[in-house]
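Ticket #468: bound-state structure for uridine-5'-diphosphate.
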Amino acid sequence: MDNNPSKAISQHARTRRVILFPFPFQGHISPMIQLANILRSKGFTISILHTQFNSPDPSRYPQFTFHLIPDGLPEDQASKGDLAGLIDRLNTNCVGPTRECLGKLLSTHDDVACMVTDAMMYSSQSVAEDLGIPRIVLRTSSVCSFLAFASVPVLLEKGYFSDILDSRREDPVLELPPLRVKDIPGIQTRNLIDVELKIIRSMVEGTKTASGLIFNTFQDLEEPNLANLKEHFRIPTFLIGPFHKFFSAASSSLLTQDRSSISWLDTQKPSSVIYVSFGSAAKMDEKDVREVAWGLAHSMQPFLWVVRPGSVQGSAWLESFPNEFLEVVSKRGCIVKWAPQQEVLSHPAVGGFWTHSGWNSVLESICEGVPMICSSLFADQPVNSRYVSDVWQLGIKLEYGLKREEIESAIRKIMLDRQGQEIRERALHLKEKIDVSLKTDGFSSQSLNALSDLISSFKSSGVSVGSE
Ligand code: UDP
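RESOLUTION: The complex was predicted; output attached.
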């Protein structure tokens, strides 16, 4: 039976409008656009609000209507590297324009059912409340990492953030097993600055008062955390992922995907290539680049490495790469600026994925049964990587940053050793569970139906309501 919602439009379909507002970063825009397509396949009409900063290209989605929210950010905001400041400013600056835009939409449409906004766009909660529209939150990462964010205020009170001595970084967090102190969100910068704490609190509190919570994940993976989730968030929760199994993320890529990576993979032996990508936001310094480069070179495995322009501090692209390494690349590797990642991961030549542990990358890897090597820098990444290695046992975590010996050894383990084979078997088993979950009576499909029913149950907001 065909379980693709794009083909099986729900019997309960009504022409109700859902207004979506993504957080403007690649790892958040893609799942929101995928969700828009999923909801449209359930019969809903979709309007998308978007900022100028990292705007999606509306011409790629004639099926949706787009509304620009002026974000008031300076042109060079992205290059400043102050992520917390950017999140805070986006939320503050967007309140007025979002209220104005929604007001207009409500005065011209009588079919608005609700808003679905990213958990990081927490300021939309007060706008939705003011205008009397239900807000459903989309959290684009794992349940396990969201719970870690929700626990930050308590962990702060218990003193985890004071005196973060190197000797304590490996200690277990007794309240959140199997996390270690170094995995707690926000602890990587050693002191949780006020603005970070404000963001975490606002995201968590804004979600608690929302009308529902959607995760791009699936039940088999997160089962151990669901009871805890219900305790923290007493609102209807929907695990309907992995979204990209319904609709690919390729169309929402903000950067051009270089297809030469696929032709290069076509020339490689099955399961021989380690694919390396650190996502859309991570940056490295020159020292890190050297460790990654020599770790890859010494592993003796073919590799495909995504190096985003501007991701190496002080370099436009590959200028700081050692020349001897670029010789190795010409024989055994391929470097591109941005790849069609889902296609890369499903390519038979790929045998392992070294990821920064962004949630979309982790899910895409799981769905293709590819074993992972996990690094992590900030936000949800340390928690995701801890779960990949210690709980789901789908990869190896690089525990001590980027060190060439550890990198070389992890690549060999994943690609050549028994450990890699065992991980591959577990990953393939999970891949089968995902397929079951997406079937008509599977958990993700049922959860999607429940979400669709909840949205349909909301009273229409808009002109007809105002005139009652
Ligand atoms: N991605 C891509 N090409 C690349 C690297 C990444 O299309 O060369 C996509 C990847 O498939 C994923 C997203 O970018 O959907 C990255 O999201 P993730 O949550 O993994 O990390 P973030 O970029 O948010 O740190």
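RESOLUTION NOTES: The chain has a mean pLDDT of 92.
TICKET STATUS: resolved
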